[in-house]
Amino acid sequence: MRPSGVFDERYEQDVAIVRTAAHWGILFVGLAVLFILPLVTGVRTLNLMNHIGISVIVCQGLSILTGYTGQISVGQAAFMAVGAYTSGILTAQAGWPFWLAIPASGLSAGFVGILFGLPSLRIKGFYLALATLAAQFIIPWCINHVRVDLTGGVFSLVVPPPKIGDFVLNTQFRMFYLIMPLAVLITFFAKNLMRSGIGRAFIAIRDNDLAAEVMGINLFQYKLYSFFISSFFAGIGGALWAHWMRAINADHFTLMESVWYLGMIIVGGMGSTAGAVFGTIFIRVLDEVAREIAPLVGSLLPGAGVGVELALSPILFGLVIIVFMVFEPRGLAHRWEIFKAYYRLWPFAY
Amino acid sequence: MFNPAVFQFLPQFFVNGLMVGGIYALIALGLVMIFKSTQIFNFAVGDLVMVGGFIAWMFMDLGIPPVLAILLAIGIGAIVGLIIERLALRPLIGQPVLAAIMVTLALSYTLKGIVLLVWGGHPQVLPKFLPGKIIRLGGVVLSHELLWTFGITLLVYALFLLFYRFSKAGLDMRATAEDHQLAQSRGISVRRIFALTWAIAGMTAVVGGVFLGMKLSLNLPLADAGLKSFAAVLLGGLESIPGALLGGLAIGVLEDVLGGIIDPTIKEITAYIVILIVLIFRPEGLFGLRRIERI
Questions:
Q1: Which helix (H) or strand (E) holds B238?
Q2: CB spacing of B106 vs A321 below 8 angstroms
């Protein structure tokens, strides 16, 4: 739905992301608010925002693979682990600077992603989900049992904070200015990629793979591209995670994390760049709220065991996913579109 | 790491694996049942098993005699299955495959959370009530519990084979699995079949939970055993009941033999390596139906 009075006269206008002067205004004000926000918030909110920033990067990757290309993956956290350990080992053991280690970890995760994407040549749907499930268990096992001298095995690997010259990014506040620009940049990249030929090929594969092949899209090649890009983002997210947490363990990257990422893109809306951001914010904030009110619930149910504090978040998460799947399978992004159409038309009905 | 002397224990590893494989096969049965009649792959099967085990434990903890407690738990398991089907899965009939996967995954977290909420995070051990004692056969030690597990698994499998072959409901289920519309036009209520399937899956989950709970302790990682039974199902072929039995036993044996000969930690990922190999070389499994479709 175009705003009233906005006409596209050239192709560039039709595909433009930012279309009107008002859009530009909202974009700049929004970005300015985002980057001023850390100056006024407490450390806890900052922590949450950093977590959201990293999750947005990982989710944009999963959104490209699952939302746009239609290849279901329950192994995103494992690819994140590859990135986290690559960056951790390169900076801690080999002494690389972080700005070199982060792209390197994206690449290494990308290639591992291609490896586990190979079965997608022959299988799809939940068979592919099982192949990525295997990745989700094999990769952490390799971290814990192969070359323990490098990874630290079951003991965590300590990662130094990123350093620019003598300036050390060792607080939440400083990390924010590393994580958030990257998250914005990657969101923009993902949005842009989906307007390109590659992006349209991905969508064609998702909608009808046979038709896509007839149109001359090399299915295998493009599926592997999709796996690579998705895991590349996961690797960058993992590397940031490593520098943010400063101690990494294979236990941080469980099946549960992967399912959370899937849940985020489902709540946000499959096949939508904005949806991945909405979903990430929604689920992370929900998790935070669940933790906040858990002691309260615990005091209301005196008979329940010590598990209450841990129980609330998975129950809420599971219920939210089921509710979204049943009542709003197109996610928050769809609601957002409806809202936009509504305010552009107001006060008319259509 | 590698020591030729371990080969003398090979028969023992084999037998142990066979017995553990019985448990996987029992869980796998629940998976195959649901897949056969609803085409949904239940990722929450491990959690269902865990919940089943906890329900049985709760009744035993109340002082009810074990056999009665298990029967009660089986009844509750059926009700749990019915509730899940009605609330989460029936609205999704005809939705894309990701929806079903995601809902069963979400279900798995909800069930985990409920277990934490109701029974707390402490591991529980089911009281040992099975008669008999450890048997020595040559150099091989057979634990009677595992022998019981194995026997019950075979019994349940035999029951299911008979059920599918001769009972009206079983035949209806097979018809539903073949084609929903065709089944409906023959006067079979597909909804009723779905409900029945989930009720039975809930019941088998309780049986599996009881035996797993006796071998290991009842706690959250129990759900991972359910994930391993995916390998069993995939190896056997998704639609095949004998395939699930053979697949389960094969995974159990492979796990114990590889774990014994190479390295105990490799047990954790044997099942997943099998998944990858099966998916690459023979996605339909050993006895599954080969579907010709576009990839």
A1: none
A2: yes
Q: Is the peptide bond before A119 cis (omega within 30 degrees of 0)?
A: no
The ipTM of this complex is 0.85
d(CA A179, CA A173): 10
B contacts of A131 (beta carbons < 8 Å) = 275-276, 279
A328 near B CB under 8 A: no
Q: Which residues of B192-210 are buried (b: 16+ CB within 10 A; e: fewer)?
A: ebbbbbbbbbbbbbbbbbb
Has residue A161 been placed in a domain?
A: yes
pLDDT tens-place string over residues A112-150: 999 998 888 778 777 888 889 999 999 999 998 888 778
The residues in B 138-167 lying below 8 A from A, measured between CB atoms, are none
Asked if A325 lies within 8 A of B99 by C-beta distance, the reply is: yes
Banded model confidence at residue B112, pLDDT cuts 50, 70, 90: confident
Residue A196 lies in a domain: yes
What is the domain range of residue A140? 42-273
Q: What are the residue boundaries of the structural domains of chain B, listed by start?
A: 4-281
Q: How many other CB atoms are found less than 10 A from the CB of residue B46?
A: 30
CB contact under 8 A, A133 and B91: no
H/E stretch holding B135 reads strand B135-137
Q: Is B237 helix (H, G, I), strand (E, B) or coil?
A: coil
Question: Is A140 a domain residue?
Answer: yes
Tokens of A104: 């390197």
- Residue A140 contacts residue A253 (beta carbons within 8 Å): yes
pLDDT at A186: 95
CATH architecture of the domain formed by B4-281: Orthogonal Bundle (1.10)
Residues 254-293 of B with CB under 8 A from A: 263, 265, 268-269, 272-273, 275-276, 279-280, 283
Whether residue A162 is contained in a domain is answered as yes
How many domains does chain A contain in total?
A: 1
pLDDT at B34: 85
Read off the pLDDT of residues A184-195 as tens digits, 9 standing for 90 and up: 999 999 999 998
Q: Smallest CA–CA separation between A221 and chain B, in Å?
A: 14
In this complex, is the C-beta atom of B88 within 8 Å of any C-beta atom belonging to chain A?
A: yes
